[in-house]
Amino acid sequence: MGKDYTPEEGKRLYLEAYQLSGGRPKEAIALAERLYKLAGAAADYHYQALSRYIAGFSEINRGEFAAATRFFEQGHALCLAHDLEALSVKFHNAFGALFFQLGSLTEALEEYEAGLAKARHLGLLKETGHFLINLSQIAQRKEHGKDALAFLDEAMTISEQLGDEVFTSSFLNNLGECLFIDGQIDRAEAVTRQSRALAARIGFRKHELIDLKRLADIALLRGDYQGALQLAGEALAAGNAEGFPEDAADAQLTIARAYGRLEDYPTAIREFDAAIARIEAQDFKLRLGPALEGRAQAKYSAGRFEEAYLDMCRSVEATRVWYREDSTRQIASLETAFRLDKIKQEAVAEREKRQQLEAINANLRIIGRIGKALTSTLEPADILSRMWQELKPSIPLGSLGIGVYSDAMQTIDFPMIVADGVIKPGLTIYMNDESSLAALCVRRRETIYLASADEARQLLGASSMINHHGQSVQQTMVFIPMLREEIVTGLLTIQCTQTAAYSRETVEMLEAVSSYAAIAIENAKIMAKVEGFSRRIVNEKQALEQVAVKSSWLAEHDALTGLPNRLLLGRILEQTIGLAGMNGTKVVLLYMDLDGFKPVNDRYGHDTGDRILVLAAERLSRLFRSGDLVARVGGDEFIALAGGIKDRDSAKALAGKIGAVFREPFAVPEGRLAVGISVGFAIFPDDAADASSLVRLADQAMYNAKHGPQPAPRR
Fold first, then answer.
1. How many CB atoms lie within 10 A of CB 459?
2. What is the pTM of this model?
3. How many helices and strands, by DSSP H and E, does the chain display?
4. In a 3-state reduction of DSSP, which class is residue 359?
């Protein structure tokens, strides 16, 4: 060996570089290079290979994966060339960590399992512990919480045997993450604080930053958004200053999510933009998909629906590219695609609902104004002029006429007509005139809507048609019978030069207007019946008010089952947990999904499926008290809110009661069909402190109840 080098010196240099790798990776690489040269000159291949191992991990901590690969390949080649079997085990760990960072979970799992088998065979206790910790990370990423905790339980036993603080720091860091993912927030916080204190004491700066960022995530989950911003801001500043770009990106994503929870969407989007730019620059592939999805959610909340859609498409693509394991890729893509489709549907539905409500309100205002105007005059010219003035700003108009029907004379008399805004002389139509659309309307006693002159010609043949003295050929024509006590008293006709000019809602509005027009005509003809017409006005107005009330009710309820929908549920959920927070009471949210519904729906058809959904809603409604809430949130999914829950056992008993009720088949005309139910629940404030987290945890619990935890794939 070299004159100034001993194995003890090699060990000292290696341990010093190991300590620096987590906090000052550039210094660790420089020290590893020194060890490589000294050990190589002294033919100490063991520490020469170890210098490549620690240099590679330092490069991973810097986000330099190509450089890390070169170091690991050099070290592994030294092990093979000099028969360093025990040391070669470490390079399974090295390549596994590299694959994990690149998102290649299948290759990472293969390396870790191979390394664990060799470590157990050779009796290498510390390496066995490291592989168990690494396998727990893969289980966490695959959301196999129980498997992750099982790996860490065995690693904890090894940690107690070793008494090695650096190993213990790695163990605590991963245990905190596993508990956080598993939803054990209080334990996760305690372990994370313990891990952070130990990492700070031994100078393992990377672990300290990871723990700091996790504490920010815990604060975010608990609704302490300002606390989350402060902790994540500290982690971001430290990551930038000390050369940890990966941890800086994670911290910036947490900051963006916190601003999103605060509903400061412009700031949230800017933070997501900066984090995504950092992720793409450093090629942190595992983080790109979730980051794009987070930005999509912020843009959706800000009303930027098209941009949200594009970000979700990129998120799906990022997931497909970097999750190479087929099952993981398929699940991730389907889940993301579902959220994407949901965003599109909600955006379209919200826009359509807003447009419908605006149209209804506008039509109701027009009807009210026309009704008031028409019932305040007895002059036919005034009646037509006021109708024209009210309708012209809202719909295309070419001509407008009101005909008075005489059953005794078998005629329809138009006293006058408004054409292109000018009152023109009227005309009389005879009921035996086969070429008259007006006569046809009275005979049929129903509205006739023609979208074009061609449709009119097809209806009446080649006969000539009334154009009401207009200057242009009319295209869209509407003829509406005016009825009083089921007796035809006349008709209202509206025409214009555009094709297909009137929507169904417009025609319905005109039908309501025709009722007022009928009253006005009757007032002009028979002064003695004014009082009777007044009563009809009141009735018509009440009917319109009921339509408005019904429209409001439908906006917040499911049309099929009559249950509250997601919109109403969201508002009541916020109010309920707010009151529970002030009163110190508990609220349980149960997320339910029917089992076996899709095969029944596919086999027997949607009518049978709809009947089962209605029956399921009735069963659920009977199970809960009048003060509780049952809502249908989409497809065959339901959510229930119940107060008066004392503890988790009470919630479990309620979930079991629901499951028992659904063991009884549904009796429908097709027979007795078995459709079960999966139930998951979360309790406020035990499990979550805000509405969205409560729904998310209950949804996850329902998913676990339906599918069960999935085992980690083996080679």
1. 13
2. 0.40
3. 27, 12
4. helix
Q: Where are the beta strands (DSSP E) in 596-694?
A: 629-634, 637-643, 666-668, 671-673, 676-684
Residue with tokens 């109840």: 705
CA-CA distance, 278 to 457, in Å (whole number)?
67
Pair type for strands 399-406 and 676-684: unpaired
Model pLDDT for residues 73-105, shown as the tens digit of each residue: 999 999 999 999 989 998 998 999 888 877 788
Angle at which helices 165-181 and 205-221 cross, to 10°: 20
End-to-end CA distance of the chain: 42
Distances (CA, A) of 653 to 20, 588, 698: 53, 12, 15
For residue 481, the cross-strand partners are 491
Determine the average pLDDT of the residues in 314-325.
59
Does the pLDDT value for residue 454 go beyond 90? no
- Closest by CA to 517, choosing from 641, 384, 624, is 384
Residue 346 near residue 301, CB atoms below 8 Å: no
Other C-beta atoms within 10 Å of 641: how many? 22
CA 296/CA 346 separation, integer angstroms: 14
Extents of the domains making up the chain: 1-83, 375-551, 566-707
Q: What is the CATH number of domain 566-707?
A: 3.30.70.270
Neighbours of 290 (CB within 10 A): 16
**Gap between the Cα atoms of 46 and 552, Å rounded:** 77
Phi-psi region of 495 (alpha: psi -120 to 50; beta: other; left: phi over 0): beta
pLDDT tens digits, 372-391: 666 666 566 777 777 887 78
Sheet holding 411-419, edge to edge: 422-430, 411-419, 399-406, 487-496, 476-484, 448-450
CB 93 within 8 A of CB 134: yes
What fold characterizes domain 375-551?
Beta-Lactamase (3.30.450)
Q: What is the token pair recorded at 181?
A: 């993912």
